[in-house]
Request: fold
Amino acid sequence: FAYSVKVADAAPTSRSEMAEFWFALGLTIFAGLATGVGSMIAFFAKRTNYRFLALATGFSGGVMLYVSFVEILFKGSEFLSEHYGEVRGQWINTISFFAGIALIGIIDQLIPAEENPHEAHTEAETAPLHNPDAPVPPSAPTMSGHERKLMRLGLLTALAIGIHNFPEGMVTFLAALHDPTLGIAIAIAIALHNIPEGISVSVPIFYATGSRKKAFLYSCLSGMAEPAGA
Reply:
């Protein structure tokens, strides 16, 4: 937070600063567009490669854990201590860290599994995306048959994705402004994380709208919440 205020107070004026600005924004857009890549895999791959998804998610999680504990946590403590004093800054940093964990936990609990982009979907659920002749599994949300419920499903899915991607874009952008090397690492980790997310996002939107085009379009647009956060 302290660093974001510091960045906001210093508007880019020189060419080098503008170049840094566009580089950081470009990294954020790159990470966001990876959601569309995942959606393309869902529509064109004959089978879902869960080994690749597991490796991508695991690598992304490892990078983000490293960055969080080795880079962001200490940088946050440094900036907050400068602004609020040593003791108070440390307390704010620690409380904010665990408050963030609690907030994500609450969001995951409130969003049903079929609407949560972090929940993996079975082979039977993803099959109708790339094969129109594949049978719709009994677990698909279309079994309700109520248009209002399907619309609610689509809207909640879009909201969940936006809430999730917005802070990712903010973190990627600010990190890249402060340290381009760190920004690249975070952007790659988030991009890898967004590929399986794009697949998971396509499933509920497809069942909510019945349209493959809308599922692909909304999956791509969901990633744009990241440059919006930037």
Summary: Residues 152 and 208 are 8 Å apart (CA to CA). The two ends are 14 Å apart (CA to CA).
